[in-house]
Amino acid sequence: MKKITLLIIALLFSVAGFSQFPTPGTEGFEGTTGPDLAAPTTPSPWTLGTGATGNQWAVFDNGVGLTKRWNITAVAANVYAGTNSAFMDRENIGLGNTSEDYLASPLLTVPTNGQLRFWTRSTISGANGTEYLIKVYDNAVATAGAQTTAANYTFTPQQWTEATLSTTYNIYEEKVVDLSAFAGHQVHIAFVMRFTQPTASLGGDRWLIDNIRLVQQCFTPSALGATPQSTTANLTWTDATGTSWEIEVVPGAAGVPTGVPTGTSNTTSYIATSLTANSPYTFYVRSVCGPGLSSAWAGPFPFSTSVAPIGCGGNFVDSGGSTGAYSSNENITTSICPSNTTDLVTVAFTSFATEAGFDVLSIYDGSNATAPLLGSYSGTNVPPTFTSSTPGGCLTFVFTSDGSVTGAGWVTNITCAPPPTCPKPTALVTSGVTSNSGTLAWTNNSTATQFEVLALPCTSPAPTPTTPGTLITPATNTYTFTGLNADTCYTLYVRAVCSATDSSVWSISSNIQTQVTPPACGGTFTDPGGATANYANSTDSTVTICPVNLGDVVTVTFTAFNTEATWDGLYVFNGNSITAPQIPSGNPAGNVPGGLAGSYWGTTIPGPFTSTSPDGCLTFRFRSDGL
Length: 627
Fold this sequence. Notes:
By secondary structure, this protein is mainly beta. It is about 0% helix and about 35% strand.
C-alpha cells in the first residue's frame, strides 16, 4: 500500500508557533534520499513532508560513532509501507564506548491525550545490547541549535530493548507512546538508538522506523450492552472520540475474536442479524478515529439470543422459558404442526431436566393425545428427535408435573421439511422378553432392503445419526436381541437403510424390562419387583433354591433389604418347601398376612442363611399387605 504524506504542513506552521503533524499526519520518509547535508555530517536537517521551512526534522549524535547516522532504506524487506523507511545502521565504536544517534522531529504541539504511534522492528535475532528510546525536549524553543542539543531531551516516556521492541525481530510492530503529560506543550520528539560496545568487535543491532504519527488518542468504547431477540441483537456502547466503529460478533459465550470486523456503524449502536435463536454470542467493538487510527477492542460482552416462537424454525420450551423452571401442578398440551401440508415437522431436544418419575413429557404422533404415543420422558436424559409420520401431520406434547419439585425443563429446535427419501420404520412392537432377550417388530415404510437395530439401557442418551447399530441383512421386519442383562431396562431402536448414503432417523420403541434371572447357585435372588423396582402390594411369592451338585448346600447372603416393618415379611425355611423347618427371625406375627411369626422385615439385613437340610435347599416365602 502506497503511503500518502501530506505536504500542507507549511500552511500550519509559523516561526513563532507550531502544531502537531497534519491530520492524519503520517511521516513515512517518502520522496527523500536522506538528510540534507552529505554523510556523515551531523547535525543535519532533514527536509521531510511533515516539516516546514525553518522547522524540519534533524539527525545528530553524541559524538561517538561518526561514520553512521539516521538515513533511509529502500530495501523492500526492510520497509513497512511505501518505498522507504527510516534506518539507523550499526558500526564499530570501540570497546567500552557508548553511541547515541538521534532522529528529532520538528517543533510540535502535543494534542490533548496525545499519542506517538509508529511502526518499528530490529534486524538481528536475540539480545545484542541495543536500547531504543523515545526522548522529549519539553517546552522547546525555536532557537538555533536547540533541536540538536542532546542535553535538552530530558524526558524519556518510553524505551525498549531488542527483546521488547517487537515480538519477532524481523516483523514490524506498531508502538504507541503516551504523551498526554505534554498536552499543549511545544516539544521536539527524538528517536534515539543507544549502544555500549562490550568488546572490540562490531556489535549491537539496527533500528527501522516507518509511518510516524502524533495523534489524539482514540479511546476504547465503554458501557457495552446488548438487547437480543431470537435472530437479531441491538448492540450498544458509549464513546466520545470515535467517528465510526467496527464490530465483531463471535458465536459462543466465550467467543475468541479474530480481529476481523463483522460489521461497521456510524453511530454507537449496531443491529447484528442472522443470529441463531437460543444461542450464546460474544461481541467486541473498537473506535475508528481516522485512517489507520483505531482503539483497542472493547469486550468481551456475552449475550444470548431468545427462543423463537413455536413453529417451523422456532423453539418449543417449557413454561419457564429457556432459563427458568416450569411450575408445579402443570397439565399443558402443545401441538406443533408444519406450515406446509406437504412437510413433516421435526422437534429436536437440546436440553431436558424434569423431576424423574413425577414430571413427565409425553409425545404423540398426531394433533392430540389420542394419537399413537411415541414416548414418555422424565429425568435428565435428553429424549430423541421426533418427526411426524405423515405430511402435514402434527406432533403433540403433553406435560404434567406434580405439586413439589420442579426442574429446568427443556429446549427444542423445530424444523419443517419435505418427507425424507428414506422414511423411518413405524408401529414398533416388543414381545418375548426374557431375562436375557427381547424381540422387536416394526412396519417398513420405505424401499429399504436392510435395517439397523440397537438396544441401549434406558439411562443412555438417545442414538445420533452417526451411532452405529447391528445391520440386519437380508431385511426382515423383526429382530430378537440376545445377550441382554437380566432385570434391566432397555430402549430398542431401529432405522431403515435405503442405500449406503441414505438411512432414516432412528425409530424408538417403548422400554422393555428384562426378567429377573431364576435364582440358582452363582446367581441373584431378588424380590418380585427386581433389583431396581418395588415389590407389589398383596404379594405372596415362594422361591426354592437347591444345589446343582449332589452333596452341595445352598448359602444365601443378602446385600440389601427393605420391607414395610410389621406388615411385609420374608420367611426362610431349611429345606425344599414351606413345610420344612423354619429359620425364624424372632419377630412376632405382626400384621403380615397369614399371621405366622418369625418373618424378617424392616431394613436390618438378615442372614446369611446356609441350608442344613439333607437336600441342601432353602425356601423363601414373601408376603406383603394390600397397602
